Amino acid sequence: MGDTAISRAEQNKQLVRDCFEAWANGTGGPFDLLADDAVWTIEGRSIAAKTYVGKKAFIREVIRPLNARLRDRLKPKVRSICADGDTVVIFFDGEATARDGKPYTNTYFWQFEMRRGKVVKASALYDSIAFNDLWSRLAPEG
Questions:
Q1: Region 66-71 average pLDDT
Q2: Is the predicted pLDDT of residue 10 greater than 80, yes or no?
Q3: How far apart are alpha carbons 19 and 127 in whole angstroms?
Q4: Which DSSP string do the residues of the chain spell out, in sequence order?
Q5: What is the mean pLDDT of the chain?
Q6: Are 91 and 80 in contact (CB under 8 A)?
Q7: Is domain 2-137 in CATH 3.40.50.11440, yes or no?
Q8: What's the angle, vertex CA 124, arms to CA 136 and CA 66, rounded to 5?
Q9: Rounded to an integer, what distance in angstroms lies between the CA atom of residue 119 and that of residue 142?
Q10: Looking at residue 1, what is its pLDDT?
Q11: Which of 27, 59, 127, 138 could share a disulfide with 69, CB 3.0–4.6 Å?
C-alpha cells in the first residue's frame, strides 16, 4: 500500500509540474487538469473569494475576467510542488502586465485534490490586495 501511495503522489506531482511548465511556456495550463465538476474555492477575503462549482463556472467567473484585465498572460514561476497521495500543493509566483501597463504580481498557494489524473477540488490562497487592486482598477473589457 505504501508504494502505491508514493507512486500516486509522484504521478500527481508530475502531472501538475507538466501543466505548470506548459503554462510557463504558453502551451497549456493548470486549468487543463480540472474535472468538469471540479469545485474551486478561493479562500480569504478577496473580491473573488467564494466556492465555484464546475470548471465552466470558475473559468467564466474568474479566469476569463482576470485574463481580460491583462495585456499579456500570467506567467508562473514555481517555488515548490509537494504531493502526498492525491493531494498536491503548489507554491508559485505569477507575473503579468495589466492592460493599463502596470505590473501585476502575486504569490499563490494552491491545493489540489486529484482523482484519476484530474483536479476534483482546489483551494487557492493569494495576495488579496494585489488581486483586488487589479480587479477594481480595470474592467474586464475595455
A1: 96
A2: yes
A3: 22
A4: -HHHHHHHHHHHHHHHHHHHHHHHHTS--GGGGEEEEEEEEE-SSSTT-SEEESHHHHIIIIIHHHHHTBSS--EEEEEEEEEETTEEEEEEEEEEEBTTS-EEEEEEEEEEEEETTEEEEEEEEE-HHHHHHHHHHS-S--
A5: 95
A6: yes
A7: no
A8: 35
A9: 33
A10: 47
A11: 138
pLDDT tens, position by position, 48-57: 999 999 999 9
**What is the C-alpha to C-alpha distance for residues 86 and 8, in angstroms, rounded to an integer?**
7
Where are the chain's structural domains? 2-137
Question: Are the C-beta atoms of 57 and 36 separated by less than 8 Å?
Answer: no
Q: With 0-12 CB in 10 A as exposed, 13-18 as middle and 19+ as buried, what is 136? A: exposed
Does the pTM of the predicted model rise above 0.90? Answer: yes
Amino acid at 66: L
Cell numbers for 58, please give them.
470558475
Q: How far apart are CA 54 and CA 119, in angstroms?
A: 11
Cα 141 to Cα 57, 64, 72, 129: the distances in Å are 18, 10, 14, 21
Q: Which three three-digit cell numbers place residue 102?
A: 502596470
